[in-house]
Amino acid sequence: MNKEQFIAKINENLRIDGRTDIKNATPKQLYNALSRAVMSEIIPDWDASEERHNSKRRAYYLSAEFLMGRAVFNNLYCAGLLDEAKEILAEQGVDINCLEEIEDAALGNGGLGRLAACFLDSAASHDIPLNGYGIRYKYGLFKQSIGNGFQQESADAWLDYGDAWSVRAENDAVRVDFADQSVMAVPYDIPIIGYNKKSINTLRLWQSESLKGFDFGKFDNQDYLGASESTILADAISNVLYPNDNTEKGLRLRLKQQYFFVSASIQDIIRRYKKAHGDDFSKFADMYAIQLNDTHPTIAIPELIRIFMFKEGMSFTEAFAIVQKTCNYTNHTVLGEALEKWGADLFKSVVPTIYEIVLMIDKHLEKHLRSIGQTDAQIEAKRIFDGDRIHMARMAIFASTYINGVAQLHTDILKNDVLKDWYEIYPERFQNKTNGITPRRWIGLCNPELSSLITEKIGDGWQTELDKLAELKKFVDDGATIRRFMDIKREKKVQLCEYIKKHEGVELNPDWAFDIQVKRLHEYKRQLLNAFSIVDLYFQIKENKLPDLQPTCFIFGAKAAPAYRRAKGIIKYINEVAKLVNNDPDTKDKLKVLFVQNYNVSYAEKLIPAADISEQISTAGLEASGTGNMKFMLNGAVTLGTYDGANVEIVEEAGWENEYIFGARVEEIEKIKPTYRPKEKIYYTNDRVKRVINTLVDGTFNDGDTGMFGELYNALINGTSWHKPDHYFLLTDLEGYVDTKLRALYDYKNREMFSKKCWMNIATSGKFSSDRTVKQYAEELWKI
Ligand code: 26W
C-alpha cells in the first residue's frame, strides 16, 4: 500500500463512517478509519499466517487476562506504517497523538495479563504458531481518579470508542452449558501483528450472548423486563473483569467466566483439530500444546476430558493421557491467598458434569499416588478434592506435562517450599522460564529517541535480537555517547512533565532525579515502605542532616482492588505524604511526591523512559518475577530493590555495581520469621523507625476519619487475627532501604558516573526480551 492508497482508504472509511474527512474527523472517527485501513491491508498476510501454521504443531495460550494496552500505535509500528500515518495526518494539520484519547484495552489486572500480551507479540514477531484465547470483557479494569487523596473508581467502557481491531467471527460461535443457563460464546478475533509483519497471529476473545435473544412471548404479555432477561443474564458473564490481582474469592460469576471461555476455546480447538487432522485423536497431543496461564483456565483439563469421553467416545484413561500430554501450567505467585480453590457445592451447582470429572481425576490421582508408595498423609496433602474444596493448582500439576515458575528464584521456591511435595514425585515436570517483555512496545515504540541512538551505535536488528544490546558496553567510557544518552533521558522527562502538567495539574522539574514506583498496589509490593522512606528523608532534611541532597521527584502509580481496604489506605497515606513534603518550605525544593491517576499501560509507556531509579522493593520471596523491573532496565534506569524475583537475574546481568540492592534475603526472612517481634525488637528500640511509623497515628496526617491509618499501624505493630505483626517485614528493611536510596541519590549528583550505570543496564538487558522467553517455551515446553 503506497501513501496515496493509504490516504484513499482512510478517507473512504471516513466517508462511510461519518461523511467526513481527515481534516474534520473526530479522534474517534480517525482512529476507526485509520485502524480499519490497516486491517484491510493486513488481512491477506493474516490469512497466510494462519494457513502456514495450520498443518504444523502449534500452541494455545489460555488466559483470563490479556492486558493489551493501546493497539493503534503498536500496530502501525509493527506494520511499518507509523511514520507514514504520522505524515499523512500532519499534512492535514492533525497530530497523531490525538489518538491518545482512545482508551487502552485493559483486559487484565497487572503482570500476568501484560505478560500474556508480550508473549503474543513475541511469538508473532518470530513466526511461532501461538494463538491466545480469552474473554472479551465489556468493561476492563476500572478507571481510577484521586479525590481528596482517596482512590475513586469508574467503569472502563473501552468499547465505546469502537473496536476497530476485532473481527466478529460469528460462524465459529459455540454453545456453553451451565447447570442453570446456556449461552452463546461468540468469538472476536484480534490480529497480533509481529514486528515487520513477520507473522500475524490471532487472539480470540469470547463474548457471551443469549441463545434466544429477545423473548417476544414475554414482551407481548407486557413483561418487558422478562423479555430481555436471558440477554441480561448471558451478557453478565463476559461483562466485567474482576479487579483482583493476587487475591482469590470463590465467586460464582468468576467460575462461570472461567468455564465460559475455557469451554468455548476447547470446543474451538477440537473443531480445528478435526478440520486439519480428522477424527483420529491419537495425534492430538502431537499437534497441540495448551499453556494454562495460572490456575484460572485449569478447568480446561476436565473440559477436554468431558468432550473426549462423551463426544468422542474415549475412556477416562485414554482421555486423561492425551490431556496430560497436551497441557502445561505456569504458576505466577506463591501467595496462598491467590491459589484458587473452589467450594465443592458451588462448583457442583455451576458445572455438575465437570464436577464429576474432577472427582474422577481426584480418584485417579489417589490411585496413582498409592501405586508409587505414598503414605496416607502424603496423599491427603495432595488430594484435588479435600472433602470440602477443589484445589485447582493440584489438578493442574497432576494433569500437566510441565509446570513452570517465572523467574529462577521463584521456581526454586516452588520446588523447595510451596510445591515441594509435588517436586519430590515429579522432578522432571518442573522448569523455569524467566519472564520477559517485548522490546517493540517497551523501547521501540515508547522511546524512539533512545532507539535511534542505539541503532546509530550498533545498527538495527537489536529489536528482534535483544542480546545485541551487549555491543553497547563498549561505549560506556565514550563521554559523547553518554552525554547523548543523558540528553535523551532529559527529553523524556520533559515530555513526561508536559503530560503530567496536563493530566495531573502538577508541575515537575525535569532537572531533578526521577524515582518511580508503578505497579499494582499490594502490601507485599511495599509502596508503604517507599512512602515511609520519604517521610524519613523529610525528617532528616528538617534536622539539616542531608546537606546538598539531590532534589528528587518520587512518582507513584497504582490501582488498588476496590475491596482491598489496606491498599486504599496506603494510597491515601502517599497522598498525605505528598501534601506535607510538597508544601513545607524546608523540603519543597528537595522532595516532590506525586501519585499519578489511572496508571495503565499507556501511562507506563510515558513514565518508564523518564525514570532514573526503578523501585522494586517487594518482600524477598514474594514477587514471583516482576516485569516492570525489566522495562525500566531496558530504558536506562538503575534498580533500587530487594534481592527478589527477576531482580536477582537483573543484578546477575548488570553487575552489583550498577544496581542498588538492599534488605533481607529469602533465607534471612525465613530465619527471622518464626520469632519475629517487630514491636519489641525494632519499634521500641529504633527511634528513627518509630518516628516514621508513628506518623500513621500521631496526627501528622489525616485519613479523613476513616480509621485507615490506624489499621495500617495496627497491622504493622500488633498484627491481626490472620497475620502476625508486620507480615511483609517493612520494619526489618526500612533503615537499609533509606540508606541505599540515599547512596543512589548522592551517586546521582555525579550525573555522568550515574548515567554510565544506566547505560550498562541498557547494554545488559538483552536477556529480558520476551522473545527469549517465548522461544524457550516453544523449544522446551511445547517442542515446536
Ligand atoms: C484469582 C485472583 C488472582 C488474579 C491474578 C490471583 C492471581 C493473579 C495473578 C497470578 C497475579 C499476577 O499477576 N502475578 C504476577 O505475574 C507476573 C507475570 O508472571 C509476575 O511478574 C509477577 O511477579 C506476579 O505478581
Describe the structure.
By secondary structure, the chain is an alpha/beta fold. 48% of the residues lie in helices and 14% in strands. It is built from 33 helices and 22 strands. The strands form five sheets. Strands 1, 4, 7, 8, 9, 10, 11, 12, 15 and 16 form a ten-stranded mixed beta sheet that branches. A hairpin with a 4-residue loop joins strand 8 and strand 9 (182-193). Helix 21 (479-504) crosses helix 32. The longest helix is centred in the first third of the chain and has 28 residues, at 27-54. The chain starts with a helix and ends with a helix. The model has no long low-confidence stretch (mean pLDDT 97). Bound molecules: ligand 26W.
User: Radius of gyration over alpha carbons?
Assistant: 27 Å
- Measured as a percent range, the helix fraction is 40-55%
Give a count of the beta strands, DSSP E runs of length 2 or more.
22
Gap between N and C termini, in Å?
Answer: 33 Å
Tally of separate helices:
33
**Regions with pLDDT < 50 over 5+ consecutive residues?**
none
Q: What kind of sheet is the major sheet? A: 10 strands, mixed
Q: Roughly what is the average pLDDT, rounded to an integer?
A: 97
Bound molecules: ligand 26W
The shape is globular
Beta-strand residue percentage: 5-15%
